[in-house]
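=== RUN LOG ===
request id: a7f3
mode: sequence -> structure
chains: 1
length: 595
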Amino acid sequence: MDALKKYLFPGLFIIVLAVGFFLRTYHFDSWLHFELDQARDAKVVDEAYRGNALDLPLLGPKAGGTFLRLAPGFYYLQYLSGLVFGQTPSGIAFFVALLSFLSIPLFYLLVRRAFSKEWSLALTALFAVSAYMVMYGRFAWNPNLIPFFSILGFYSLLRAVDPSEAHRTRWFLSASFSLGLATHFHFLAFLALPVIVAVFLLLKRARFSWKAWLGAVAIVFVLYLPMLLNEIEAGWTNTEEFLGAITEKSSKEDHNLVEKTIRNISEYALNGMVVLSGFEGATFPAIVAKDGVFGSVCDSKCDQGKWYGVLAVLLLGAGGISLLVSWWRARERRVSDFYLLSILWFGVSFVLFLPLSYGIAPRFYLLSVPLFFIMLGSLFGSLKGLLGERKARTLFLAAVVLLVASNLYFLNHRFGELARAKSEAVESAPDRILKERIRVTLEQQEEIVSFFEARQRATGYPIYMFSEPQHRRALKYLMERRGIVNDVLGFSGIYREGEYYLVLRAKSDLEDAVRKYRTSYEILEPQSFGTLVMIELVPKPEAIMGERQDFSEEDGPSDSKAPPRYTWREFLERNQKDETTTDDILEEQEDKAAN
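=== RESULT ===
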């Protein structure tokens, strides 16, 4: 019996880690989510593989819906991932799965600052199987790294302000690096994390040696040196975009503060339910406040899930109150610090999301996703005084078991859709995690590209293809990897020597999609690739404008509005040449269409 008790906890912890790793890596290559942004990033990193690390850019990806570029840390990590795991779409993405897995034990260490071993393990088990966390850990996207580095950073920060800690300076430097790097991955992280840290340190009146402060400043300086060099070279154009983005992001929606606050609360609550349970069917009525009169709008779709939404809002409110109560009642400094940081984490994120409340995306909650688990533990912990230790623990463990089962159920359903996506026109419910309209996998896309490759080998003709923005750039990238001569259908004219195709959603209105092509092409029967279909177009003789497109011509000057982005090599050589090509213009057009 003693041996069982001795090995039970480590055994359960290993099982949690094993399940978390399995869920993040199962069919990782074949089911990889690879669309517009992933192809864009892969193309950037490929330039460095063809040359060397000096061909990496000084700026990172664009913040969604703007010309503002983030810092380049994501590209550097992606480049290293490819060197280790292979220079393929899955190889440059695997580091995301690895860091998502490593965030599991890190999360345990974080919540262990306030909860017992048993409660911390239970919360960690839920964190490991959360459908939201699993799906964002299965593909490459810059926001997907925020949970790992924010958890590491805040854990390090708590250790740094702990008077009993023997190596406070080391932890302070670790926090500076982790949180500084986390600001590379999303515009909201860039704004929120420095504010949270600054307010926390001011409230704690934290004292560090001048060497520690100098080291922290040096770390942040090095992390942002590439961006600084690009700004010097480009005339601070990205900074101008940053200032413009702040006002643009907050002025898009015409709603008053009351409406935005209510919407923000409901969005936080609904996404919290997704994070904790995997259930995506909760809704909440739209609240309208005008001239002191409140009203609500709830259509039939909203009506089906509104009571789940009401429950989610009530639980969010109770969870927020429990954080305040737990902080107020905390007797140990490490516990008090934990709850204070959690309150600031939630408060700053909530205020930051307020202007965006009517246009918020699920990925935004990667900034504060650990808080949903922390509030769950805090809420049940607050019940100890009312119900007693034993009853509160029983209720908590029962809730966690139900939530774990719920997440596994919804993950199994989603994995089943991914498995069938290449062979069936799977119809998916509205997606509150990735906002996918349909399931499309890398394996599926590779099959389409293999078809294109076979046709080009048989005819020797270029491939002209058009699809929705999120699929078009991915398919084009995969074709270019195989050396398939191609262009976008409709961008370069119609030639006799050419193979012309549309790649569309199987469940879309195909007749409407091909209508505009009927004047110039004969439309052949669709060929099924599961959730996608391919339609071959045969040019009519009168529509042909030439024999064959000349692909030897280089792209001409660009009219791209994006700030110039230089590589290390270009900066070191002081090359002022604008390297933006028509690919950049196409990227901008696709970004606008996708957003």
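=== NOTES ===
The chain has a mean pLDDT of 91.
The chain has two domains: 2-240+257-296+323-400, 442-549.
=== END ===
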